């Protein structure tokens, strides 16, 4: 052991350029001459596996692809970096037969240019975009900012989103033309303060040095009363839609009042509830009632029978559907000779005409359809319950205030302004037209409000205070409960109480004397026909 081994292994010396080992091409492993022996005293490189020896003819393991490619000048250039493809690598075991051993080098060649185009990182474009972004940031940082930074940024974004030019806005303000509602709302919401407006007016340097929002506002401020004109334009643009909403709301309220007053079936339900309640309260101070608050309808589901399932509402529905079934059949039989007579109580006239036998099941089936249709009959009630009377009145008051503001702007600022434009004429014609429309809406609102109060008093008596649309909310909620009760009755087996024809059920006769009289009349008429 005469040779001395250093404590730290030195790095191997660099070979001359002429002795560098060139990279193998893509087509396969070339047969290379063995390199020079390692320097004396240096580390010994590890031996390659037998199947991976350079120059070996074995093709069981494909040659690894090169990581660098030669350019046209013969130099070495790095490959374009591609997007990563995440997978789980499996080590190819030479001692085990695997499908990967069947893959031969060079059997498949992909288009290198295409894969780089599709999945390569375009570093040049990225650098160019970064440079443009830096340039834009540097340019914006050198611009003069007068508005609040957040306001300036938001206004610039809104202007770009609306894709509108300042010349178009200025022309509209001078000629009285319509502008997008969103744009007007944004400009009014981000109007400059008195201090910002003064700074914009006093700025006499190059306008290009201002930001986008500042340039836009400075151009608008050259027009007299620009933002007052915007308010007037916004009112001119939105009045038609707003007045249509008010008219539709008032129409719904008027139709609801008529529906509730004229609904025969709803009145029948109130009669059934009144008589049922008096029977249950018989002998107490609650009995003998002649009317009740409609809030009581919402309590029918709270009273349950002995079985713990059937509620007082279920009982009322069962009695009503029997009564309505008999009535529907009677109407259908009377109108059988006239095919032009419609039967609103039935969903199918053909089915009603086929019923000729007094059958409780058939009566209940037909009556259930009639009672279930009450929700559709009172459709406007559900729509009216979603309205807010106070909000509607406030809405109308706001329209009137905006009209007076536009009228004042027309008679003061615009009158003293000497300019040749169509804005003055457009605003003047609009004020005359809007004055008539809003006056009509105010009169209609008073009339409908009185109609709603009279309808509430019609059911509740003179309450002495304005209950608004509370009556419609109660009826809407009750209609939902009624629909659920009809569904329960439809799904549950109908319990028919069989009694002799000449003897009515004592309790039922006490509850519904009108139904008892109708049944007696039906029985006598059947006997006469037989």
Automatic annotation (TrEMBL):
Q: Where is the composition biased (Pro residues)?
A: 22-48
Where it mainly occurs, coarsely classed, is membrane
UniProt KW keywords: Signal
Q: Where is each FH2 domain found?
A: 72-508
What InterPro entries does the record point to? Answer: FH2_Formin, FH2_Formin_sf, Formin-like_plant
What membrane topology does this protein have? Single-pass membrane protein
Q: Molecular function (GO) terms listed?
A: actin filament binding
Keyword Signal in annotation: yes
Q: Which GO terms describe its biological process?
A: actin nucleation
Record localization: Membrane
| Pfam families assigned | FH2 (PF02181)
Compositionally biased residues, Basic and acidic residues: 515-530
Q: Name one GO cellular component term.
A: membrane
Q: Which SMART domains match?
A: FH2
What PROSITE patterns does its record include? FH2
Disordered as annotated region, ranges: 1-76, 500-530
What family classification does the UniProt entry report for this protein?
Answer: Belongs to the formin-like family. Class-I subfamily.
Q: What is this protein called?
A: Formin-like protein
Protein species of origin: Vanilla planifolia
| Lineage, highest ranks first | Eukaryota, Viridiplantae, Streptophyta, Embryophyta, Tracheophyta
